[in-house]
Amino acid sequence: MDPTTFSGPHLPLSSLRLLVPPLRLMSASMWQVAQQRNVMQYGKLEEFVTLVTEMVPELLTLKQRVQLILGLRARLVLELCRGVESNPAGYKTIQPHLDRIHSCTTHKGSEDKEVEASKDNFVELVQTLLEDSMKREHFFQVRWLTSLCHKSLFQIKLKFICHVRRIQRV
């Protein structure tokens, strides 16, 4: 199987036309989330990206899709880490998001060593941030702005939304 393609069910163009009005509403809402960088809603944005790219896999390459999905979920997790104190309840809040990240990296049997390594490093970072308040404070004061590639995540979000708008015009 070619790792850049999705072999799930494809919708015919006539079926996509029925989805355009709700798709317009959802994409407008998600565009607002992306533009305002409303990180606490990135989970919903990630779910929208997943839904749309499963219906129309040509919107993004598999690598772009995984990068966008993981980037959105990771950004949300880091925002949750920023506000959580080092206690078991904090981990319980974050764990479902880490599980979602894990499920995204094992999508449809395609394994990418680079993606797996990124996921493993990210999970390790989150565990460190949850367990060590000094490292957490240092990370968010010093490394936060330089450690994340916000520009590439924004570019992929923009590309995805532009492709969705093209579908709406059909």
From TrEMBL:
One GO BP annotation of this record: telomere capping
Every TERF1-interacting nuclear factor 2 N-terminal domain range: 31-142
Name by which UniProt lists this protein: TERF1-interacting nuclear factor 2 N-terminal domain-containing protein
Species classification: Eukaryota, Metazoa, Chordata, Craniata, Vertebrata
Recorded GO MF terms: telomeric DNA binding
Pfam (any one): TINF2_N
Cellular compartments per GO CC: shelterin complex
